[in-house]
Design a protein that fits this description.
The complex is a heterodimer.
Chain A: E1 2-5, H1 25-35, E2 43-47, E3 52-54, E4 59-65, E5 77-80, E6 85-87, E7 96-101, E8 105-106, E9 137-138, E10 162-166, H2 172-175, E11 179-181, E12 189-193, E13 207-208, E14 213-215, E15 223-225, E16 232-233, E17 237-241, H3 246-249, E18 257-262, H4 265-280
Parallel strand pairs in A: 10-18
Antiparallel strand pairs in A: 1-2, 2-7, 3-6, 4-5, 4-7, 8-9, 10-17, 11-12, 11-18, 12-15, 13-16, 14-15, 14-17
Chain B: E1 4-7, E2 10-16, E3 19-23, H1 30-44, E4 49-54, E5 58-63, H2 70-84, E6 94-101, H3 109-116, H4 120-129, E7 131-137, E8 144-147, E9 162-165, E10 169-173, E11 176-179, E12 184-186, E13 189-193, E14 214-219
Parallel strand pairs in B: 6-14
Antiparallel strand pairs in B: 1-2, 2-3, 3-5, 4-5, 6-13, 7-8, 7-14, 9-12, 10-11, 10-13
Chain lengths: 283, 223
Amino acid sequence: MTTVQDLGRPGYAHLGISASGAADALSLRTGNLLVGNAEGAAALEMTLAGGTFEFESRAVVALTGADFEASIPMWTAAWVKPGEQVRCGHARSGARCYLCVNGGIEVPLVLGSASTHLLTGLGGYEGRALKRGDVLACGARTLRAASPLLGTPPPDQDSPPIIHVTSPTNAQALCHALWEVRPDSDRMGLRLRGPALDRHTGHMLTEGVPLGAVQVPPDGQPIILFVEHQTTGGYPKIANVISADFHALGQLRPRDQVRFEQISIDAALTLLRAQEDWLHSLV
Amino acid sequence: MVGVSQSPGMRVVDSSDRSLLLVFDDRISLAAHRDVLRLTPLLRSAHGVTNVHPAYASILVDFDPLRTGHRDVERAAEELFEQAVAAPLLQPRTVEVPVEYGGEYGPDLETVAALTGHTPDEVVDMHSGAEYLVYFLGFSPGFPYLGGMPESIAAPRLETPRRRVPAGSVAIGGRQTGVYPVASPGGWRIIGRTPLRLFDPAADPPVLLRMGDHVRFVVKGSI
């Protein structure tokens, strides 16, 4: 599945509209910087399986994210000639690969964003995943030259991945178990399978939920709210994934195993700043 | 408890590394609703704030942690809360929502009737006989959380949410009722469907109902 994504449409949660945007925003931003775009330019997000993309004119492109056994090298800017194809296969590991093009993918903005929100058919290319034969326009070339640097993949690739969480109480039960990503996970939520967690009984008044919230529905199997998440929810929340690990959530695939580790908000923000420093060291 | 502070009328929880939850009450109340109604637009333009999620008695504030911090946003929220108390409220509108209850459009109507000890007709009479207040929009685009449902038709949420609830579905979840504006997963019990479009991204605003509106469900067709 391939969709057009950028950094989403924040600012509409009060109307029930979540920000959406790239599932691995760090890879999208990196790819854009490599081709000389603003970091939030729209690009193609491939999930689990890629595709073949033919260019009518000369372009600078970059592939970032998961390794899809592509026909061009990853994490670096590359020229493609008119008529040349970029071929991407299936994800060897991870879940998402980004194809960024100098000038960005041009689609009409909906509520300020090019991001496809699949659930509502909002934004992107006709509000849907791309199909064979679709023709997409690219924006005008940006003036800034493509980065000559090689953008190495972001650090901290543990196996099984360790996802850091914060919690206003404590997330012990979550952190003590090994979890498996269920096949019915998507851009709305990552559904986990493992030992049933306590139901945290008691009446829960519906309240706003942030990206990365770890919700526990009555069956005790946690759901991590992801980029197309609901803006409010009534299930108890036991933890929240840190901002610096959102990109790692975007690379989880069905049947992956994952562990959680609780850290403080200060530690979470230190990791986020280090990640931003890494990103900006590319340009 | 770590990460929780208290100022008069408002409790603050650090819910993530980029958000704060402002809590005005632990139950649904008109006073808390009015706080939420007044404070939401003010918070949307506060420095570094990226998204504001109003709810029954709380507001979740998302912010960019590289531009501001938890304590700065908390201070801004406290100042705005003081201003909000004096802010005028818009005149509420009343919106009629036609509903076809039961049958294929309301697959859970009979279960709700059985769970609450009524006939399906009684559930429909009570559901369509009340006037509702739009406490807030949340969950999915344009989804109204409504207050005012008679308690005697309250029915527990599904144990496992449905993967897909059709657009326009009118449903009961606990003591709450609402309408699903777009097809989405959902854990509420579906009792009917409306043909109205509650969410239209091409419209301005893209939502039919607004926080603070009054809503009446009107029976369309028979069961």
